[in-house]
Amino acid sequence: MTEDRFLLKNATLFDASGLRKLDIRLDRGVVAEIGIGLSPSVSEEIVECEGHLVAPSFIDLHTHLREPGGEEAETFLSGSIAAAAGGYSRVVAMPNTEPVPDSIGVIDEIRGRTLRLPITIDLAASITKGRSGQEVVEISELTRRGVKFFTDDGNGVQSAMVMRRAFEASAVSGAILAQHCEEESIMASGAMNEGELGERLGLKMISPLAETVMVARDIELCKAIGGRLHLQHISTSRAVELAVEAKGGGAAISCEVTPHHLLLDESYVGSGNSLFKVNPPLRTVGDIDGLWRGIGSGAVDVIGTDHAPHPRWKKDLPFENAAFGMVGIEESLSVSFLGAVRFMERNKGYLPKADVVTRSIEQLCLPDLSIEEFNWLIKIVDLLSIGPRRLLRLPYEPLAIGSKVDLVIIDPSVRRKVSTETIWSKSKNSPYLGMELPLAIRHNIVNGRMIVRNRSVEVERYWR
């Protein structure tokens, strides 16, 4: 038996063509045969997928890996292990590092550190030199070198004129400008969402306007100049509405939401636990429902994790002084699905716009899920898997003989409790500690290798 030949039996497959039930034979990551009742050969491993969902492995457009400069919190090694555990085959690493990847020389040096890892790490370049917000990097030159994603994430580009110049370069090169959507003068050094709870707790607050003003500004710039705009981690129902309006006008605009903004509301901050301090802040239940309706309508393009590791000493501080951010790439599927379940409880009968035939949903629904839950799971997987491939213009055609695929196998029967011992990330600043979460990544097959096997990352085999 070789480690790179697999027969996936009784798979309920979701891909760009929708849902189907079949067996899949993989030979070194290439689909060798598809059918029903395929017989195994002596040289391949049988992977039983009955009751599981199989889909293209996930891609995260918003991961903080901290290397170089922040290795105390995370490294390419530890972050890639955590990503694999979450079902990912590819992540886009944010540029708030030291040095900032704002030139070909720096990007080539940093890329060299990632090449031997089992998953792909794409580097986002900054929009401005040094992430200073003052001077736009050589976007066209960097795009020719293979960079697709540009962002000053951690901060938004505050100058409209600087952003205009970036859009002019994007219009020529096709680069994605990913904006951290916050107007800093409105943020006013706040720590949590503006509202009655913040006033009661006596904390400095962040107005939702900090997000919507930036979203509205950049939408207008994109519409007027061209280029591609990606709105990062939107957290308000109004931002969703603005994105819907802009897309209706034909602008090249996409947006992402995060798992934590789909599940956690501002009431969690009431405990004073800095693990719930994040930027943008946790919002109201009404905002959460607005995000879910954006997902259901098709307005939201991807779920991005905004995985933001911090060493313990940066979080073990009073809430106002603690660092923003939380880890979450390992739990993104489970947290998003739990958020969907809670949304369903608040909004009986609301289902996402059907991307696959309803009859297929009913016929292929997994035994551990209701039809409504299965509908939402399919939508979530689409935003974790196919949506990012669309934006990055990577292949996402239906599974076919001869195609090269990475596949994740999702087990809906599992319920598990999150603890520091279960987290693969180097940092443990998870808001989900102690929570019981649904679903599990049973296996993750990337480049023909099963890098996650029976819920455990094959660290010794592939990361040493």
What's the layout of helices and strands?
Blueprint: E1 5-15, E2 18-27, E3 30-35, E4 45-48, E5 53-56, E6 58-63, H1 76-85, E7 88-93, H2 104-111, E8 120-123, H3 139-144, E9 149-150, H4 160-173, E10 176-180, H5 184-187, E11 192-193, H6 196-201, E12 205-206, H7 209-225, E13 228-232, H8 237-248, E14 253-257, H9 259-263, H10 285-297, E15 302-303, H11 312-315, H12 332-346, H13 358-364, H14 371-392, E16 407-417, E17 436-446, E18 449-453, E19 456-457, H15 459-462
Parallel strand pairs: 1-4, 1-5, 6-7, 7-8, 9-10, 10-13, 11-12, 13-14, 14-15
Antiparallel strand pairs: 1-2, 2-3, 5-16, 16-17, 17-18, 18-19
Task: Give an overview of the whole structure.
The relative contact order is 0.16. Strands 1, 2, 3, 4, 5, 16, 17, 18 and 19 form a 9-stranded mixed sheet that branches. The protein is globular and about 65 Å long. By secondary structure, it is α/β, with parallel strands linked by helices. The mean pLDDT is 96. 32% of the residues lie in helices and 22% in strands. It has 15 helices and 19 strands. It has a domain at 57-346: TIM Barrel.
Largest sheet composition: 9 strands, mixed
Which homologous superfamily in CATH is the superfamily of the domain at 57-346?
A: Metal-dependent hydrolases
Share of residues in helices: 25-40%
- Strand-residue fraction? 15-25%
Structural class: alpha/beta
| Parts with pLDDT < 50 across at least 5 consecutive residues | none
Instruction: Tell me the total number of β-strands.
Output: 19
User: How is the CATH topology of the domain at 57-346 named?
Assistant: TIM Barrel
> Which CATH C-level class of the domain at 57-346 is it?
Alpha Beta
CATH architecture of the domain at 57-346: Alpha-Beta Barrel
Taking all residues together, what is the mean pLDDT? 96
Helix count from the secondary structure assignment: 15
Distance between the termini: 22 Å
- Integer-rounded radius of gyration: 21 Å
